[in-house]
Amino acid sequence: MSEALVAAEAAGAGVEPVPGASGARQFWRRLRTQRAALVAAAVVALLVLVALAAPLLTALEGQDPTTYHPSLVDSARGGVPIGSFGGISGDHWLGVEPQTGRDLFARLAYGARVSLAVALAATTVQVLLGVVVGVAAALGNRWVDQLLSRAADIIVAMPLMIMALALLAIVPSSFPRPVLVALIIGFVAWGTIAKIVRAQTLTLKELDYVAAARLSGWSTWRIARRELLPGLAAPVITYAALMVPANIAIEAALSFLGVGVKPPTPSWGQMLTSANVWYQAAPQYLLLPAGALFVTVLALTVLGDGVRTALDPRAASRLRVGTGSKREAKAAAEKDVQSDVQSKVVQSKVVPSKVVQSKEVQSKEVQS
Amino acid sequence: MSGFAGFALRRAMGAVITLLAISVIIYVVFYATPGNVAQITCGPRCSPEQVHQVAQQLKLDDPLYLRYWHFLEGIVVGQDYSTGTSVEHCSAPCLGQSYQSDQQVTQIILTKLPVSLSLVVGAMVLWLLMGVGTGVLSAWRRGRISERALTGLTLAGISTPVFVIGLLLMIVICGQLELLPFPEYVSLTDDPEQWAWGLLLPWFTLALSEAAYFARLTRASMLETLAEDHIRTFRAYGVGERSLVGRHALRGALAPIIALNANDFGSAVGGAVLIESLFGLPGIGQELVHAVNVVDLPVVVGMVLVIGFFVVLANAVADVLYAVADRRVVLT
């Protein structure tokens, strides 16, 4: 997914502290009203379940993802699975892999584990790095801020896929590959979230309750932990929710290119590498991982949209555009005045032009 | 205007610094790794003598910062390599020598660059047309069934990894329907018709996945502009709806689209790498993947710098264009 768009969408999510975002209950109530997000959440829950229960499910089938079954492929015909529909049978629910005869269902289920685990781990790395750098930049002195902000700028400017590809070249292959992929995706894509967190922290810092804490002699660390972090939750969660599907796509892409997760560890992207050769003999070898990727990324994206809407009521009004009734327009205009004031506060402090821009883009989206 | 010139200058400086930072990171990460750099650079099949020779050519006895400085020097003014028996000149911009393929990195890149440029530029034209067109249409038809269909399509486009789109299109269009031949690259100067014909599917694939973002952004931007006062005034004057949407509103909505176009360039380049590998187009992306797989360090470093150059350049140009197009941007 596009970094730029994610940034633009996440930037506005909490730049204005959500009034009365006093907790999870309000969030759930807002999330529940969105039917698409609920369906997506159910799909995601199912995927997580499959991933967690992969060993159980494959034990039920009586297979595992790495055992070769040479007797199930026709070596005379280049390794095409024997039997109809790519070798689907009671023993092999979705057929077997061409050439190797490995069980397709098992590889798909274990592939879900790899996809989700790598994406979640990468997102965690991005969030941790981004929050630490962003808060430190906002609370540190001028030099710290300059240094960290420049670093974030540079990270944002780097072409993510290319950097990840290049970095994968030099790490010895003995290093566990999924961990490596997660770390690398995490380390090349924390810039945007750091910028969002920095901008949000600068806004929060000026609020009365933070000033009060400072005046009562709280340490910077305590203020950051007790007063600032809760206010950062909304934009960070929004961004993270949008980054998970993006990270899944990146992992799949790297593995598809043959440099990400390597065999025998199964991965959806990796399964697609040679799928186009076999699509006539075993179409499910292509369609299953492709479909799995599509459904997963789609569900996570819709869920991410829902999470954003639930955390940011202003975005909600944007999503339900349509009638353009007078009352809506007026309400939107009032919100704009507020957000203008807010964005001026932010703009006067935020130096990097990109953040100003993404705020612009965001406020454009919000206004509509 | 001086404010603007200053802004442009600062932005250019920023781009140069970013590029330098990328080069430092890449260089240090690659050439300060534990392990025998000379052996890795030379390749697994090198004899100890060859490895020794490579170590001398890379001046591995020098400290890292000095080697980096030589590397930069090579890019700016060129470099001479002694290969033991003869001295080879590597003219600026010299990105080093690939010992595994026995070629200069700059030469490798120059032979691959036309393919990648053909792919990305052609696709960019398509994705702007498709994305902006879809966005305008769905803003215009908002609330109707056609808008819902377009929004759904857009979401599907965003959710499908580009190589999956390409795989499916290739199988259906080239394999089953045989509407197009399987993609191949023919040089533009050799045969323009074959060039376009062979690249049609790769263009379309890359454009489809990028257009989805532009459709989303254009729609949002259009809806905002359509709600502005001057549009209402136009409407009151009796300007037709078509001209209102197609001309007046689109003009106001273009600024963020310009910005995204370049900011998204990096992800488009990533997509191009996938597409080149998928369709077997001999471009920079395919070469980079190959170099990563065989750990040809000089090539990887050179490729990353060249790609980084284009991405950073695109970002800088976008920022400046954006500032020109939208005066509301605060110049900092």
Q: What do you see in this structure?
A:
- Chain A is an all-alpha fold and 368 residues long.
- Chain A has helices at 3-11, 24-32, 35-52, 54-61, 104-139, 142-157, 160-170, 177-188, 191-205, 208-215, 220-256, 268-272, 275-278, 283-311, 313-319, 326-349, 353-367, and strands at 73-74, 80-81.
- Chain A has a two-stranded antiparallel sheet with strand order 1-2.
- Chain A is elongated, with a radius of gyration of 24 Å.
- Mean pLDDT of chain A is 76; it is low at 1-5, 11-21 and 316-368.
- With 332 residues, chain B is mainly alpha-helical.
- Chain B has 2 domains: 2-104, no CATH class; 106-325, MetI-like fold (Orthogonal Bundle).
- Chain B has 13 helices and 4 strands.
- In chain B, the strands form 2 sheets. In chain B, strands 1-2 form a two-stranded antiparallel ribbon.
- In chain B, helix 10 (241-263) packs antiparallel against helix 13 (297-325).
- The mean pLDDT of chain B is 81.
User: CATH homologous superfamily of the largest domain in chain B?
Assistant: MetI-like
From the structure provided, what is the oligomeric state, counting identical versus distinct chains? heterodimer
Q: Between the first and last Cα atoms of chain B, what is the distance in angstroms? A: 14 Å
Helix content of chain B: over 70%
Total helical segments of chain B:
13
Q: Which two chains touch over the largest interface? A: A-B, 65 and 73 residues
Q: In the residues of chain A, how many domains can be counted? A: 1
Strand order of the largest sheet of chain B: 1-2
| SS-based class of chain B | mainly alpha
Q: Judging by the overall fold, what is the CATH architecture of the largest domain in chain B? A: Orthogonal Bundle
Q: Indicate the radius of gyration of chain B in whole angstroms.
A: 24 Å
